# Entry
Amino acid sequence: MVVSPGKSLIWSMTSNPSPETSPLRSFGRTKGRPLSDRKQALVDDLLPRLAIPREGKVDPAALVPGKSAYILEIGFGGGEHLTGQAARNRDAGYLGVEPFLNGVAKALGQIDDAGLENVRLLEGDAREVMARMPDGCLDRIYLLFPDPWPKARHAKRRLVQEETAAEFARLLKPGGHLRVATDVKSYADHALFVLRNNPDLTWLAQEADDWRTPPADHLTTRYETKQLGNCAPVFFEFERQ
# Structure
């Protein structure tokens, strides 16, 4: 598929994305309603046992030893996708990073209910965690429906930037996959522009249905069902060369 540099395959670009030049926060609020007694107990008791360290190196193989593959989900929201994938693939290790405490608490409830032992969590900023991970340690990265920051003046706050694209490529093993999904047109254009400009990442789409149709292994999240975006969800699958 041949496309002129910088031209969107989905919609016309309204402006060229600006790379992030400072560590601006790429997410919105971090706490909502007070937690229920059960969720608070899970945060107090279960989360410390499953927590990704806040300091030092983060090696997925050391955190969840003996697994056949290691997957990172960035901004897992309510945890439906993260825990659903972990339940399907218990021989793989899953790391989830989410800044919203209530989302972390929901995921802990799902982990507890399903008896999952292959998930590790952190309430925080995924960029900080990625910086502490070794090269080529991941088989897959999910970035599903991140905060879109749709206004042009906020584009620099979007998580997908040249620097994070380079981090994705650094962390993925050769042949590893990155999946980015969004239901916001401006974010889709921005993400595709940035990721296609990284020489180590190859977009795998060959026809429109490859990005318009959810992948066969996709698990629909509660966010998707709300249809809050301004377009149908699109799914971009990239491979690490």
About this structure: Confidence is low (pLDDT under 50) at residues 1-22. The longest helix spans residues 101-114. Strands lie at 69-74, 92-98, 119-123, 138-144, 172-182, 201-203, 234-240.
